[in-house]
Write the structure tokens for this entry.
Amino acid sequence: MQYVDYKYFRTRFDSGVAFVTIDHPPINLLDEALSEEFDRIGREIEDDESVRVVVFQSALPDFFVAHSGLGRVGSVSKKVSNTRSFRLTQTIGERFRNMPKVSIAKVEGRARGGGSEIALAMDMRFAAIGKAVFGHPEVAIGLVPGGGATQRLPRLMGRGRALEVILGCGDIPAELAERYGYVNRALPADELTPFVEELAHRIASFPAHAIAHAKASVDTGAFSSLSEGLLVEARESDLSVASGVTQARMAEALKAGAETYEGELEMAYLSKLSPMK
């Protein structure tokens, strides 16, 4: 049986969407215990073919994930190894980035340091105006962010703004985070959950193979050269077209009004397609 014996996560499943609630009071500290469960639940979600989208949220109103535990960080040996290796938070993040399904962070409280890095590793981030706060205080206490922020932030917002966040060590509220590209959207607090849930269910209603191929193609475009990305895009597109599911849905879309004047005005035919099982 999957998803058992978790102390700090609660899970709910609905039509291809896994809603994962982080509950590690008082601040959802990314300590050894929470990190181990994050690693484990990432592996389970990755292997669960019934899940096409995962939404991470917090049970605590003031915190998404506070930051990495300083005791955990400080326990690292002062002797630096010459062998390069990934940090656990990096590994957790890369698993969500690379898995063939969509991950979403719904942030309604503070996400600083390692908590910010967990959110940054998700495919999308949505934040509550007046409640969500992002930031990286590591440099202020002599540390360098070590869970992915120095690599993910410049790709999202550019070098100058990434340095402002990482070296300034100040809080970034939801609306500024949206303007900088830290998050996809900042929404009024009462609109956040309905928006995220509708988006998650919308994506989960689409063919799993198409989600996976599209994500793989976008990742190559985001992290590789343009020419390499175009080659990957061409192959992923060909693979999706070759799918029998895709062929059937294209035929269904045409019958439902695709490529007609009325059908294309609002793309109403999409709501008429058979739900994916």
Summary: The chain has two domains: 9-204, 208-272.
